[in-house]
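lol forgot to send this yesterday, sorry. struct tokens for the thing we talked abt
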């Protein structure tokens, strides 16, 4: 104990004593800098007026509890001094040479007032020319007194710490015994071994992180599942965002909200993940995620196959025609029957023209209905969505291909409409080109375009420039194209905007094998 006290005393003394001296030096330098910036001082030195300088420095000396403030000119002649009879005489004590050459300095010296710690700061006039030096002195006796006070403070703190440490050790020992429920170390070791065996033998993967989102436990099943998905290496103590970024367990830590049965696809393996925060005494101390292999999930199938995109298109169509019904109801109440007839005729004519145009070019009924809904949504958003006149899409021989194609087209159109929000001119072009068993789908917008460095990142799950909890649309587009064994490209062009092109195999239903 005594050895520790001696070592701590030496360490603290070597740290605090120099800091005390540096603090006093900084104080003297700060006061000198402040005085050097006062126009009264620089002008007084320029014009040879010492009376005003003497009055000002006397106030500074009294208010800041310092030994002296002396202002000298470039010939070391005093313009102020605690003893007015010394004004006009040469500065005594030396050390001003560096300051007369424009450099601040700190030194010890002995002058008419005794030993002092002095700060020298050059004074410049408003034209930037040096006209003198400000010298601020602190009594060395006071410096030594403060150092001795700090030494006694260190001793008092160490003695207090020793007493408190001894008392704390006794209390802590009693508290630990209570927390251990009277168990012996051998009992605790056995309990930990049993806990580890249970976690390692479970059929579910388990990953636990601490409050800093660093992995504190990972069982063998988790390593096996993640290894199958291509995540290898020792994960212990690593940050979960570096080891398995898609898990986003750090968000569970920050929000304190559980996530049940979350579907994550990891390099071809679908995992069903549940994540919950770990709370100790009402505080979040970590989080734990359990997961198992589940390659065919109804929710994920719905998401990837485009059922949610169907529903969105149907909602858009229903909303548009509900608006038209409201117009019809209002005109009926007002008795505007002639105008109502014209409105209905025009609406029916436009709808028939739109349906006719779609059905002539899009032979697959599911895709045709889907595009009609998207056209309605685009009109509501004030976007001009145009299907290219030479577009042609024969009916598919495989309904799953159409589902994947709707996921591709729907997410590309949604992404384009979001990009165009806030623009005055909103234009989106859609094109289908079928030839010899392959279909090329192109979606073009007149938005601001995608910077070259981001053209690979935009397809990463969770990456988005639009805020958190986004970045799924283009990821699903890429996954759907890969499932169809096709290719997805961003086509550069001379005009502003972005063009996505998906080239996928496409089998035609029945005898419709001719190229269009």
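and heres what i got for the seq, position by position
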């Amino acid at each position: 104990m005594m050895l520790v006290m001696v070592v701590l005393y030496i360490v603290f003394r070597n740290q605090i004593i120099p800091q005390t001296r540096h603090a006093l030096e900084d104080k003297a330098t700060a006061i000198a800098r402040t005085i050097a910036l006062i126009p009264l001082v620089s002008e007084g030195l320029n014009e040879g007026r010492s009376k005003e300088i003497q009055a000002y420095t006397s106030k500074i000396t009294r208010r800041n509890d310092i030994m002296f403030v002396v202002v000298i000119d470039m010939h070391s002649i005093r313009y102020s001094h605690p003893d007015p009879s010394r004004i006009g005489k040469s500065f005594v004590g030396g050390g001003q040479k560096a300051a007369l050459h424009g450099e601040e300095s700190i030194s010890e010296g002995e002058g008419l007032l005794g030993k002092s710690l002095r700060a020298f700061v050059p004074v410049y006039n408003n034209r930037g020319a040096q006209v003198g030096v400000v010298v601020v002195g602190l009594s060395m006796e006071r410096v030594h007194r403060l150092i001795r006070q700090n030494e006694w403070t260190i001793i008092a703190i160490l003695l207090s710490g020793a007493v408190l440490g001894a008392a704390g050790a006794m209390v802590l020992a009693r508290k630990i015994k209570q927390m251990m429920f009277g168990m012996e170390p051998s009992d605790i070791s056995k309990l930990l071994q049993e806990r580890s065996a249970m976690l390692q033998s479970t059929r579910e993967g388990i990953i636990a992180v601490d409050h800093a989102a660093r992995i504190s436990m990972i069982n063998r099943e988790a390593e096996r599942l993640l290894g199958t998905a291509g995540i290898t290496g020792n994960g212990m103590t690593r940050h979960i965002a570096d080891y398995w970024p898609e898990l986003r367990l750090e968000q569970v830590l920050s929000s304190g909200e559980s996530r049940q049965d979350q579907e994550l696809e990891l390099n071809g393996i679908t995992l069903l993940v549940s994540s919950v925060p770990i709370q100790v005494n009402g505080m979040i101390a970590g989080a734990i995620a359990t997961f198992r292999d589940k390659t065919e999930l109804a929710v994920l199938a719905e998401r990837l196959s485009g059922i949610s995109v169907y529903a969105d298109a149907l909602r858009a169509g229903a909303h548009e025609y509900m608006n038209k019904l409201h117009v019809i109801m209002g005109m009926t109440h007002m008795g505007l029957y002639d105008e109502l007839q014209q409105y209905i005729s025009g609406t029916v004519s436009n709808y028939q023209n739109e349906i006719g145009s779609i059905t002539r070019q899009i032979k697959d009924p599911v895709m045709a209905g889907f595009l009609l809904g998207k056209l309605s949504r685009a009109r509501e958003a004030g976007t001009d969505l145009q299907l290219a006149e030479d577009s042609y899409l024969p009916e598919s021989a495989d309904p799953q291909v159409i589902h994947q194609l709707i996921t591709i087209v729907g997410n590309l159109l949604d992404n384009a409409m979001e990009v165009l929000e806030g623009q005055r001119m909103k234009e989106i072009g859609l094109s289908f080109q079928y030839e010899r068993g392959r279909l090329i789908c192109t979606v073009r917008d007149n938005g601001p375009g995608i910077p070259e460095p981001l053209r690979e990142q935009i397809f990463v799950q969770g990456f988005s420039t639009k805020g958190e909890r986004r970045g799924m649309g283009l990821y699903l587009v890429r996954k759907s194209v890969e499932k169809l064994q096709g290719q997805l490209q961003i086509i550069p062009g001379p005009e502003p905007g972005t063009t996505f092109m998906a080239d996928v195999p496409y089998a035609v239903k029945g005898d419709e094998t001719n190229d269009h």
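The chain has 15 helices and 14 strands. anyway ping me if u want another try
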